[in-house]
Design a protein that fits this description.
- By secondary structure, this protein is of the alpha/beta class.
- The chain has 13 helices and 20 strands.
- The protein has helices at residues 41-58, 63-79, 81-92, 96-116, 155-167, 180-193, 207-214, 229-241, 264-276, 293-309, 328-343, 394-401, 417-426; strands at residues 7-9, 12-14, 21-26, 31-37, 123-125, 132-140, 143-147, 170-174, 200-203, 220-226, 245-249, 254-258, 286-292, 347-350, 365-368, 385-391, 409-413, 431-434, 453-454, 467-475.
- The strands form five sheets. The protein has a seven-stranded mixed β-sheet with strand order 14-15-16-13-12-17-18, with helices on both faces.
- The protein is globular and about 75 Å long.
Length: 476
């Protein structure tokens, strides 16, 4: 099922010009399951050359014709979804049910942009002078370089590629080295659908080397990055130095506010599911659980029962509800966060340790009474750590929710319409979902504020970053 992963450059699947490879490891077993081709400067130069040629062809195709190819891509991806989902679970670790959901969502994204790209309208502006036509036109920005992470190797790439192609851009994807095969299968679907040579290309290698070569290159006119805030700031600065457009979807540290009047069972179902999905390796995962005093203990009890009922194991195994972390670095990070918090006075309510001696498994963990100076209250944990704190008043909860420089996602549960309305106005985040999980849907915008980045993916807003406006004023 799992094969070595190649680069896709200039319409060909091939090895690196140097012949160098990178090991691919199954995080559930720690076994090497394949080799990944490692791109170098010569490979990147070839990709850039083909991207420029591909863009010249693709931009001239009508939005209607581009739409047909994208719809065909979605059909192909659906036909192959089960086999790709198994590849995804093998290399990334998430339970197969989660991988299947990722594949289903990816096909929906392609289909959405197949339609949205046909509606990138310009406008006619009434002129002051007879015989003058004033036109506001929408044109593709050009060749795009995209950089995507390992936690959602298909869904993160598909949003960027599909929006770019729908707008008429060409795309060079620097995929995730730890989860490359599922990402490569996504690219294969575009190619097999008939997208012209050079329009979609795929490279892997040392992330810093590739980004620092592609971003300044004159062929590249825009970048799109999903990843950590630290790396995102570096890439945004590099893009800014060369006047390149950028979309940055960065880290988060989402607050989850539970008020006294909340439906606790519904809150537990949504928030525990969101916290431990993909072993907590989700940028929008709820992390800081702020629970009003009257319901703090019953909510904590219900949430703990959910956490302890999770079954850790290989994502391909029957009954697994939480898989491993992606690599040994994530395990070390979780151990460090827990040790730091407990050493400073936090209570380890449940979990807190590596599980087993094979694979990168870490127990679903709950920390209470976490002191303000604990690292985990300031740094994105990106793992199965839930941090619980009680609050008294609405203002207390808002103060803590907005305390950090992160601003990607937020959650809240309340039966009060006035409280819900006030939350929507008061929370400093790019997204907030109240009384259900409504984030990351195909038709809705996805993005953050503050150190969580800028720009949106998803929805009609996701097409905008790949279009430029040209004003044409013409006298007869």
């Amino acid at each position: 099922m799992y094969q070595d992963v190649l680069l896709h450059i200039g319409g060909k699947w091939r090895v690196s010009s140097s012949g160098r490879t990178i090991d691919i490891v199954n995080p559930a077993t720690e076994e090497v399951i394949g080799k990944l081709a490692h791109a170098f400067t010569g490979d990147l130069d070839e990709a850039l050359e083909h991207a420029a040629k591909g863009f010249a062809v693709w931009r001239k195709m009508s939005a209607y014709e581009r739409s047909k190819l994208l719809r065909k891509t979605a059909d192909i991806l659906r036909e192959r979804s089960e086999s790709i989902a198994r590849i995804l679970t093998t290399e990334q670790g998430k339970p197969l049910a989660e991988a299947r959901a990722e594949m289903a969502g990816a096909a929906d994204v392609i289909e959405w942009y197949a339609e949205e790209g046909r509606r990138a309208y310009g406008r006619v502006i009434p002129a002051r002078t007879p015989g003058v036509y004033q036109l506001s036109l929408r044109e593709p920005v050009g060749v795009v370089a995209g950089f995507t992470p390992w936690n959602f190797p298909v869904s993160q790439a598909v949003r960027k590629i599909s929006a770019a192609l729908a707008a008429g851009c060409a795309f060079i994807l620097k995929g995730p080295e730890e989860t490359p095969a599922s990402c490569a299968e996504l690219v294969r679907a575009y190619i097999d659908a008939g997208v012209p040579t050079g329009v979609v290309q795929l490279v892997f290698g040392v992330p810093s080397e590739i980004s620092e070569y592609l971003i300044p290159h004159p062929v590249v006119r825009k970048i799109s990055f999903t990843g950590s805030t630290v790396v995102g700031k570096h890439l945004a600065a590099l893009a800014g130095a060369h006047m390149k457009r950028a979309t940055m979807e960065l880290g988060g540290h989402a607050p989850a506010l539970v008020f006294n009047d909340a439906d606790l069972d519904a809150a537990v179902a949504v928030l525990a599911g969101g916290k431990y999905r993909n072993a907590g390796q989700v940028c929008i995962a709820p992390t800081r659980f702020l629970v009003q005093e009257d319901v703090y203990e019953p909510f904590l009890e219900k949430f703990t029962a959910r956490a302890q009922a999770l079954k850790l194991g290989d994502g391909l195994a029957e009954g697994t509800t939480m898989g491993p972390l992606a690599n040994s670095r994530r395990v070390a990070a979780m151990e460090g966060f827990v040790a730091d918090a407990v050493g400073k006075g936090a209570t380890l309510h449940t979990g807190g340790s590596r599980a087993g001696n094979k694979g990168y498994f870490f127990q679903p963990t709950i920390l209470t009474n976490v002191p303000a100076d604990a690292r985990v209250l300031h740094e994105e944990p990106f793992g199965p750590l839930a941090l619980f704190s009680p609050f008294k008043t609405f203002d207390d909860a808002i103060t803590e929710a907005n305390r950090l420089d992160y601003g990607l996602a937020a959650y809240a549960f309340t039966r009060s319409n006035s409280t819900a309305t006030a939350l929507g106005a008061s929370i400093e985040s790019g997204m907030i979902t109240i009384n259900h999980h409504g984030l990351a849907l195909t038709e809705t915008p996805f993005g953050g504020v503050k150190d969580s980045g800028y720009g949106s993916e998803g929805g009609a807003e996701g097409l905008e970053p790949y279009l430029v406006t040209k004003f044409v004023s013409q006298a007869s």
